[in-house]
Amino acid sequence: MNAAYFEFIRIRFLTMLAYRVNYYSGIIVYAINIGAYYFLWKAIYGDAGTLAGFTVEQMTTYVAVSWMARAFYFNNLDREISNEIRDGSVAVQMTRPINYLMVKMMQGFGEGVFRLLLFMVPGMILATLLFHVTLPTDPMRWIVFFVMIWFSFLINTQLNILTGLFAFFVENNEGLMRMKRVLVDLLSGVVVPIAFFPAWGRAFMDWLPFQAITYLPSSVFTGRTSDAETWHALLIQIGWFAVLVVPIVLMWRSARRRLFVQGG
Amino acid sequence: MLTGILVPTSGHIKVNGFVPHKEREKFVQGIGVVFGQRSQLWWDIGVIESFRLLRKVYGVGENDFKRLLDELVETLSLGELLNRPVRKLSLGQRMRCELAAALLHNPSILFLDEPTIGLDIVVKTEIREFLKRINRERGTTILLTTHDLQDIEALCSRVIMLDDGRIIYDGGLEELKTRWGKGREVVFTFGDAVRADRLAALTDGMDVKWSVGDAFTATVWIPLEINVSEVLSRVVGTMEISDIKIIETNTEEIVREIYRTGSAQTPEETLAGGGPSGGGSAGTAAGTSADREPSDDRPADDRPSDKAEAGASADSSRPTARAEATKP
User: Which of A120, A223, B42, B103 is placed for a possible disulfide with A68 were both Cys, Cβ 3.0 to 4.6 Å?
Assistant: First the structure.
């Protein structure tokens, strides 16, 4: 049984590998993105030493790390799920003795591992060579970071699953998926670190799951948090992961009741 | 609904000893499902990779898997397809792989949703032969929905016809034919030109209908009560004949007739026009819209498991539309 789920990770990984040419270009796109933000922030900083508690170096590292973390947690499960619901192939999956959402999650993980190895690692090396990215030397921080981006992956995937499952309830959830993507990029801190938001914005963000996706792990990794804060950040992630399980289960239950197959 | 995908809005359902939607993961271990219109194989990976994945999904032992796979590869001649990615298979090749995939865990019930749709005649025949064989050898119960009545004629011992969620026929195929079939047709090709009144005179006193094609051919319609040989003897004795064809009542005609008369609610113009005006969503064995198919909750475990069965058509106005569409 569990072997089956592992198999889904492996096969997704191999599938991604089969289409790897797509991803060579992806590495360049990510490098360009990091570069653009790097120069943008440099211009914003001007002569200022620190902004919102970030030094220029920390900011550069933050940008690079955020994008690389994004490479790992990002996936298109929302689109996959909603497509499978709309074309009815979700029905095929339901005739198998496996949990559909678990399978999806595993496939997303296979994709994440692929990007981590063939995308994040070379991209990070490239970014370190090109820009002033300073990576921490403390192994503990690396370990914590990987634990945290694992939770980033889980939380982001949960949001994707929720968005995707909306296809059961509305004919077309395209707009919803786009909105979710923009929200995640903006509010998770990929585009602008949460520390740059006004105070009310930060307070508001504390109540949303998005910062747990990028901002918290990247902050920890760039060394902006004390040990206590680090554990606190991890706890927030775990909390959100647990909380998000509830709507998914509820939604999946009611979706089973209203499963109808569009177009056949 | 029978496969556990849909949750019924009312009624009871029990298949193979399970309530499908409640004990889904346990229940689906014992069934195989093939949808003619969508693939259950993974599009991007090799066929054999899909099979291996399914082995793990169903927890089939390595040895059982090998034995079953070898057998399936041989009977469905999949040998050279195994290492190809699914996206590079033709529809017929893919369907053979789908069948194999659905049988790898040796299910006791096989659900087929229009398994021969869009296939050429050779592949259709192969698939029918294969289905008959696994039904015979493994005792797998086969439940299929189809709009291709030749499938039914070739495979089924029990036919269930659904119309708008109601069962309008449930019984054997032969019974269906004798109860609903009204007669046979004989097509003559004559050596000399014939005239209609001459032919009518030959069968004077019999309740048959002649229709003349061109000068040399004519068709006679003989109701069931009259023996075909009787008609033949009258004609053959007096005319010079170069060819005779006897056409049994077409199952398609019968089914069309049943849908026309058996369901008062179905408007005739829908049947004749072939437009799917009433049925929005299409049918699996149980029909896909849960609220429209309350009568399908029949218990499945009272069926003898060595019988092949068929729900002839699942949806209200579509079946005849499809039947007509299959005739060029």
Answer: A120
- Look at the alpha carbons of A220, A221, A227, A231 in this order and tell me if their dihedral is positive or negative: positive
Chain A touched by B16 (CB under 8 Å):
no
Question: From the CB of residue A232, how many other CB atoms can be counted at a distance below 10 Å?
Answer: 12
- CA–CA separation, A196 vs A183, rounded Å? 16
Q: List pLDDT tens digits, range B125-137.
A: 888 888 888 888 8
Q: Which superfamily is assigned to B183-247 in CATH?
A: Alpha-L RNA-binding motif (3.30.70.1560)
Contact B310, B155 (CB under 8 A): yes
Q: Please report the ipTM that was assigned to this predicted complex.
A: 0.72
**Chain A within 8 Å of B84 (Cβ-Cβ)?**
no
Boundaries of CATH 3.30.70.1560 in chain B?
A: 183-247
pLDDT for the residue numbered A246: 92
Measured between alpha carbons, how far is B99 from B103 in angstroms, rounded to an integer?
A: 6
Q: Report the first-to-last Cα separation within chain A, whole angstroms.
A: 30
Residues B24-176+255-326: name the CATH superfamily.
Answer: P-loop containing nucleotide triphosphate hydrolases (3.40.50.300)
Kindly state the tokens that stand for B214.
């061109």
Cβ neighbours, 10 Å, residue A142: 13
Specify which residues B247 forms β-bridges with.
B185
Could you give the C-alpha distances from A208 to A147, A216, A219, in angstroms and in order? 20, 12, 17
Dmax over Cα atoms in chain B, in whole Å? 74
Measured between CA atoms, how close is A5 to chain B, in angstroms?
8
Of the candidates A4, A87, A260, the beta carbon closest to that of B289 is on A260
Residue of A nearest to B37 (CA): A264
Q: Span A100-129, mean pLDDT?
A: 84
